[in-house]
Design brief:
Elements lengths: L9 H18 L22 H6 L6 E5 L13 E6 L2 E7 L19 H4 L1 H6 L8 E3 L8 E3 L2 H19 L4 E4 L8 H13 L2 E4 L1 H4 L4 H7 L16 E5 L3 H4 L5 H8 L3 E6 L11 E4 L5 H14 L5 H7 L5 E3 L8 H4 L10 E3 L4 E3 L19 E5 L2 E7 H9 L4 H8 L3 H13 L3 E3 L11 H14 L16 E2 L2 H5 L7 H11 L1 H9 L4 H15 L2 E3 H8 L3 H4 L2 H4 L7 H10 L15 E5 L3 H4 L3 H7 L6 E6 L4 H4 L3 E4 L12 E2 L5 E3 L14 H19 L3 E3 L5 E3 L3 H5 L10 H9 L9 H7 L1 E3 L26 H4 L19 H5 L19 E6 L13 H5 L6 E4 L1 H6 L7 E5 L4 E8 L7 E5 L50 E6 L2
Parallel strand pairs: 6-7, 6-19, 7-18, 8-9, 8-16, 9-10, 19-20, 20-21, 27-31, 28-30
Antiparallel strand pairs: 1-2, 2-3, 4-5, 4-21, 11-15, 12-13, 14-15, 17-22, 23-26, 24-25, 27-32, 28-31, 29-30, 29-32
Helix pairs in contact: 5-29, 6-29, 8-17, 11-15, 11-16, 11-17, 15-16
Length: 958
């Protein structure tokens, strides 16, 4: 009898695999002689013509609801039907059964993209990891030994026990990259981390998706409306971004809204795939967007087009600022032992200073002054104070139309007319993007964009609002990761009860639900369960040699960034684990791809990798990080497990699930099963070796010998209970009716509530079944304070680092010359043909492009250098160099080169990826803290990497 693999004999597998390969080849309509298509492919098939063969692909045994719980970002995720025959997925189709919100609005159908349409080909292709692998050569050498699961888990468990017991759990970290799941797969990971007191690296600021400018202004990076909300907009700004690439399933709303009278304006350096559909394109010099916004703000203020009522009520513009210190006038200035978070306005009615309300935004009888200068008696003596709006007006004097035109390259009349159009429109909004935060001064760019909308009151109405980080999240499983070992319903109740006193205390201190949620996020960050990637790479990974060179390229800095880093860490404003002076030892890669993703990754291989005694990658395909790991464990694909991402972007307010359409291929296992089995092995080996306990970060004793029992909630949810995890956790969702049986049949359910987790609650709105999602209505309609220090949208930041660098108000600063003073600036974007690196080497996607990495450059720059389309060129700066094919494109502006992301190292000569020459200098203001809302928590308000300011030169290779 042949050895069985998941219930199949080898002969069964050969039959099924033959069927799958032939079916997939039919999908490309590339028929070869001799191919057969039958239920018994090893027997002769009496077909007459190719038409019979073609018709057979429209037969199947069953259909399963699936999706791709991948971080597709704004458009995630889409519902698909997977068609199965003989245990093989033969194809997938878009479900396209989403409802219409209102009769006058477009519906969300069909949703999906070409990546999802070929995932079944991806899951069966040769890149699949089939069984556990152990490195037998040097890291990255490509020499591997096949192991059984028991062998692999035993060796990994023994190493983990030794290191955690001797050096502590803070030496063990997970990187989840952009593949964060809050279904059973993510629950297993987070549960193991919390029980071992290890850390999850937070990649969001590192990759530049953190919307630092919005977080500084509003208290959180979160906030977005649904895509059908654009139908109510007079103007939609595609201001940086390319939704035709990054938002295929929802971008149709933009173009359909134009039929409803919406004007779509694109602002970008290059003539990209979205701009061609816009009503107006405003070409702008790279990195000068803040100057454009300040120029428009200058017009709006000068001509009196701003909404006084809105900025008095919703923003900090009326708050009084001292002329001498440039800090807000606080109660501590007027009284001994006064508070640091009580501020003042000048009331025009009473002609005196007053405290604005704290518990509400409603001003009542107060009429705050926006202009004027006043004298106040403080405990230090008399001082002059002015509203923050007066200080803004002073800043705007630097942004005349002529000066802004010189900076941006935009004609003054265009700047002026755009400012007036935005100010006079009923409703204006933007399309969110992950571009701005990838600029060194991206926070300033975003703060100025928000300023323009806020001056005009474009918040809280249909068709309005600043769209930032788009997320709706059911964080039930995130909370369950910290819960006691009980069935989920009892576990969650016990977890919430344990926080009841803390919640009560914060509520008595006038914390809103948003503030309360973010406070718990900040406290969690302090424990080291979540860890800043950027600071981890800086302190432990050798990136201080690159990211620490900010002063060399940023002409505005007066001291080295290392001074800011040390000050921030010493004061506890930011955190890094393990602490400086202690080395990391274990890295698990589960859903990410560090070596491909991190700018300046060569420093990690040089500095971090030698420190690590154990590197384990869980993946279904071999990526760059897997190639440099000690063990690679085969993870099940998206159609081979029951799972859900647990979050979506509000652009499409539907919660999607994926189901186990087929059994895991080869020897792969779901991440839930892997983490359960790893915990079981650690528990088993700890008992066998009599190493029963370890000390956590606080020095308290924890146990290895009951790890599996606690991770599986008292064995109520074992490695075989993946579907039960889905069923019981979704039944507890506060966001929608989470009936697993219904979801398996339907594939999706519509979101009904934003919940109270620190991601979704930032949308600050009530979801209504017959209306689009309009963010921030809690603030504009219910007058709930914003979760900032001032309890308003805060444009004036009087934190020390901001004052030192002259960024207390939004301004424009010239981009740094990262990498050296070279003539070309690298920009990029999310590729059209992959979601991160997952499809970058997929055959169908490669056929839609050049089939290898390319760099787009302008016709003028190519001619100047004698470069022809399709030639291989050398790209270099002071950091490093790499080779790539040049694609000469008239849509690219002179001085710009564009490289879309996610290529793997092995697709470049010498494995030299383009990110090797991106130094990503750290910006000091992102290290700020000690300022209520300027404290890091998962995903936000910690330093990030940047790549859009990298300078290079390009030459022909002789």
């Amino acid at each position: 009898m042949e050895k069985k693999d998941n219930g199949f004999t080898r002969r069964d597998f050969i039959k099924g695999a033959s069927f799958g390969v032939l079916t997939l080849s039919l999908g490309t309509l590339r028929f070869k002689g001799g191919e057969v298509f039958a239920q018994e492919p090893l027997k002769p098939y009496p077909y007459r013509t190719w038409e019979d063969l073609y018709k057979k692909q429209w037969t199947w045994d069953k259909v399963a609801k699936v999706t791709h719980p991948r971080n597709c970002w704004y458009q995630a995720h889409c519902s698909w039907d997977a068609f199965i025959k003989n245990g093989i997925i033969v194809r997938e189709e878009q479900t396209a059964d989403y409802p219409q919100t209102r009769p006058e609005l477009s519906d969300f159908n069909p949703r999906g993209c070409q990546k999802g349409a070929c995932y079944s080909a991806r899951m069966y292709d040769p890149t699949r990891i089939k069984y556990p692998l152990k490195r037998v050569g040097e890291r990255g050498e490509g020499k591997w030994k096949r192991l059984s699961w028991d062998e692999a888990l035993t060796e990994i468990a023994d190493t983990m026990i030794d290191i955690i017991a001797k050096e502590g759990p803070d030496t063990f970290l997970y990187d989840v990259g952009t593949n964060l799941s809050l279904g059973p797969q993510g629950l297993g990971l987070f549960r193991l981390c919390t029980l071992l007191d290890s850390g999850v690296l937070d990649c969001n600021p590192e990759i530049g998706d953190d919307h630092q400018g919005w977080a500084v202004t509003s208290g959180s990076m979160i906030g977005c409306g649904s895509a059908d909300n654009w139908f109510y907009s007079d103007i939609v700004l595609i201001w940086a971004g390319n939704p035709s690439y990054t938002g295929m399933p929802y971008s149709h709303f933009l173009w359909e809204a134009r039929y409803n009278g919406t004007r779509v304006i694109g602002i970008s350096p290059d003539y990209n795939a979205s701009v061609i559909h816009c009503d107006q394109w405003i070409p702008i010099n790279i990195g000068t967007d803040a100057a454009l916004a300040m120029g428009m703000a200058q017009v709006i203020v000068k001509e009196g087009l701003y909404n006084k009522e809105f900025i008095k009520e919703q923003t900090d513009m009326p708050f009084l600022v001292r002329d001498d210190t440039k800090q807000f006038l606080r109660e501590k200035d007027l009284k001994e032992n006064g508070r640091d978070d009580l501020f003042y306005i000048f009331d025009l009615k009473s002609q005196g200073i007053k405290e604005p309300p704290r518990a509400t935004l409603t001003l009542g009888d107060l009429d705050p002054a926006l202009e004027g200068s006043f004298e106040v008696e403080t405990i230090q003596g008399k001082v002059k104070v002015r509203p923050a709006f007066e200080f803004l007006k002073d800043k705007l004097k630097d942004y005349s139309l002529d000066r802004v035109s010189q900076i941006t390259g935009i004609n003054p009349t265009i700047i002026e007319s755009l400012a007036r159009d935005i100010a006079k429109a009923r409703t204006v909004t933007n399309v969110t993007n992950s571009c701005i935060s990838k600029f060194y001064h991206g926070d300033l760019i975003e703060r100025t964009q928000i300023l323009v909308l806020a001056l005009c009151g474009h918040f809280g109405k249909k068709g309005s609002g600043f769209n930032a980080f788009p997320m709706l999240i059911d964080d039930t499983n995130f909370r369950l990761a910290f819960a006691p070992p009980l069935p989920f319903k009892e576990a969650l109740a016990a977890f919430e009860k344990s926080f009841a006193e803390q919640v009560k205390d914060l509520k008595q201190a006038d914390y809103t639900d948003e503030m309360l949620s973010y406070e718990f996020g900040r406290r969690l960050e302090k424990t080291g369960i979540t860890v800043s990637n950027t600071l981890f790479w800086y302190v432990h990974g050798g990136l201080n040699e690159l990211s620490g060179r900010s002063k060399e390229w940023d002409k505005y800095l007066k001291r080295d960034v290392d001074e800011y880093v040390k000050e921030s860490l010493e004061k506890g404003w930011q955190n890094v684990f393990p602490a400086p002076g202690k080395e990391p030892r274990i890295l698990f890669e589960c859903g990410g791809n560090v070596i491909r993703r991190v700018r300046g990754y060569t420093a990690l291989l040089k500095t971090l990798w030698p420190k690590l005694h154990l590197i384990v990658t869980l993946d279904f395909r071999m990526g760059a990080t897997g190639l440099h790991s000690d063990y690679v464990l085969p993870a099940a694909g998206y159609y081979e497990k029951d799972d859900f991402a647990g979050w979506v972007g509000p652009y499409q307010p539907f919660f999607q699930v994926t189901t186990r359409a087929v059994e895991p291929l080869h020897e792969s296992k779901s991440e839930w099963e892997i983490h359960c089995l790893l915990a079981k092995k650690i528990q088993e080996r700890a008992k066998q070796r009599n190493i029963l306990t370890f000390k956590d970060k606080q020095g308290k004793e924890r146990r290895f010998d009951n790890l599996y029992d606690i991770l599986t909630y008292g064995r109520h949810y074992t490695e075989k209970d993946e579907e039960k995890v889905c069923r019981d956790s979704l039944a507890l969702s506060p966001c929608f009716k989470g009936d697993w049986k219904h979801l398996k049949e339907k594939g999706w359910v519509k979101w009904e509530d934003i919940g109270k987790g620190f991601f979704g609650i930032g949308n600050a709105t009530d979801i209504k079944p017959d209306e689009p999602i309009v963010p921030y209505t809690w603030h504009t309609d219910k007058k709930v304070p914003w979760p900032t220090l001032s309890r308003r949208m805060q444009f004036y930041i009087d934190q020390d680092f901001y004052l030192e660098l002259g960024e207390e108000l939004p301004i424009h600063k010239d981009p740094p010359i990262s990498g050296g003073n070279y003539p070309l600036t690298v920009t990029g974007g999310h590729t059209r043909w992959s979601i991160h690196s997952m499809w970058r080497d997929e055959a169908h996607m490669l056929r839609l492009q050049r089939g290898q990495p390319v760099m787009y450059m302008s016709v003028a720059d190519a001619q100047k250098r004698g470069i022809k389309d399709g030639e291989i060129v050398l790209v270099k700066n002071d950091i490093d160099s790499f080779e790539i094919m040049a694609k000469v494109a008239p849509a690219i502006r002179p001085g710009q080169v564009v490289i879309y992301h996610a290529w793997e190292q092995y697709q470049f000569k010498g494995h030299k990826l383009f990110q090797n020459l991106m130094p990503s200098p750290i910006k000091p203001t992102e290290l700020a803290g000690g300022y209520f809302h300027l404290g890091p928590f998962f995903g936000q308000l910690s330093p990030g990497q940047s790549d859009r300011d990298t300078r290079v030169e390009v030459t022909r290779i002789a």
